[in-house]
Amino acid sequence: MRGCTDLAVRTLLLACLAGLGCAGRRSSTIVGAVPGGIDAFLAAHPLAAGQPLRADEIARTPGASYHLVQVRAAESPHRHHAHDLAVFVLRGEGMLTLDGTPTPLHTGDAAVIPRDRSHWFARRGDETAVALVVFSPALDAPDTVPDSVDAIPGRQ
Fold first, then answer.
1. Neighbours of 122 (CB within 10 A)
2. Is 80 inside any structural domain?
3. Do residues 146 and 77 make contact, with C-beta atoms less than 8 angstroms apart?
4. Omega of the bond prior to 137 within 30 degrees of 0, cis?
5. DSSP result, 68-133
6. Coil, helix or strand for 134?
7. Burial class (CB in 10 A: 0-12, 13-18, 19+), 34
8. 156 within domain boundaries
9. What gap in Å lies between CA 113 and CA 130, rounded to an integer?
10. Is 64 a member of any domain?
11. Regions of the chain where pLDDT drops below 50
C-alpha cells in the first residue's frame, strides 16, 4: 500500500509540474520521488509532541514549491495573499473549509485553494493526515495571514 502512495506522490509531483508550475514556460527542474520514500521522510521529520501541523519543503521549481504537510489537529482559519495552493491528500482524512463551506477530504482527494481565500483543514479520525501541498508561485517567505471565522462572508 505504501508503495502505491510513493508512486502516487511521484505521479502527482510530475502532474503538478506539467499543470501548475509551468504556466507559459517549461520548467527546467524535474521533481521526483521523496528520497527514501514517504515513510522514511516522515520518520525523519516527525511532529513534535503537541504540534498540530508541520510543513516541510521537499522540492522547488521556478514556478512552484512542493511541501509535505502533516496535520495532527486543525489549522486556524487563514489565507495566503500571494499564493494559490493545490492540495493532494496522501494519508488520512479531514475537513477542508474554504470560504465557510466545509468539504470532506479523504486519501486520494485533491483541492485547489485560490489565493486570498479563507481556508483551514481539520483532521478527522485517528491517523495523522499527510498532504502534498503545492504553492504557486514558489513560497519564498511567510504568506499565512490569520483570519477570524467571523470575518468569512456569510458567517455570523
1. 15
2. yes
3. yes
4. yes
5. EEEESSBPPSEE-SS-EEEEEEEESEEEEEETTEEEEEETT-EEEE-TT--EEEEEESSSPEEEEE
6. strand
7. buried
8. no
9. 17
10. yes
11. 4-23, 27-28, 152-156
Grid coordinates of 57: 519543503
C-alpha cell, 123: 483532521
> Taking a C-beta distance cutoff of 8 angstroms, is the pair 119, 99 a contact?
yes
Asked if 47 and 128 touch (Cβ cutoff 8 Å), the reply is yes
Domain count, the chain: 1
Nearest to 63 by CA among 24, 15, 113: 24
Per residue in 47-89, pLDDT (tens digit) is 999 999 999 999 999 999 999 999 999 999 999 999 999 999 9
CATH number at residue 113: 2.60.120.10
Of 81, 64, 70, the closest CA to residue 30 belongs to 64
Q: How many CA atoms lie within 13 A of 1 on its CB side?
A: 4
Given a contact cutoff of 8 angstroms between Cβ atoms, the answer to whether 142 and 80 are in contact is: no
- Which pTM was predicted? 0.76
- Three cell numbers, residue 2: 505504501
Q: The domain containing residue 118 runs over which residues?
A: 2-151
